[in-house]
Amino acid sequence: MKNIILTGMPACGKSVAGVILAKVLRMKFIDTDLLIQEKEGAGLQDIIDKRGIEYFMRTEEEILSSLKEKNAVIATGGSAVYYPQAMAQLKKTGIVVYIEAPLEEIKKRLRNIKTRGVAMEKGQTIEELYRIRKPLYEKFADITVTSDKNSPEITVENIKKKTEALLKSD
């Protein structure tokens, strides 16, 4: 089985859907945010606050580029799409799924933006981040599923159906 790489805005449901999807498909689950935290020995927001956004982004790109997993569901950080070479490498290993949620839903879910470890410049708004990232998610996606009104289980079922359909058409 190819990898399934989940992309999307913070709070769109990548990690929750990823865990469930990995169980359903009997695959490994990898959360690249957790890999960053493990490597650095600190939380994402601490890395950004103490070492700067540039350092965080270099570390994230390094982690994404070094992934060699097979048969895994990989939940990426929301900023993964900033690294075209890393995304191209991930696409070679599997199917990129954009979990889309409308801006209003993201704003509702993202109550902890100051402490969550979101890769954004000081003073940047979630609206600006959404406007910048949405076209990048769409560019790299092999398939798109919406998570705004769905339970995580329905989102997972939609991912499963669309990935199976894509694999059959290859």
Automatic annotation (TrEMBL):
Pfam families: SKI (PF01202). GO terms for molecular function: ATP binding; magnesium ion binding; shikimate kinase activity. It is found in: Cytoplasm. Its EC number is 2.7.1.71. Mg(2+) binds at S15. Binds 1 Mg(2+) ion per subunit. Keywords: Amino-acid biosynthesis, Aromatic amino acid biosynthesis, ATP-binding, Cytoplasm, Kinase, Magnesium, Metal-binding, Nucleotide-binding, Transferase. Substrate binds at D33, G78, R133. ATP binds at A11, C12, G13, K14, S15, V16, R116. Its cofactor is Mg(2+). Its main location: cytoplasm. This is Shikimate kinase. The gene is aroK.
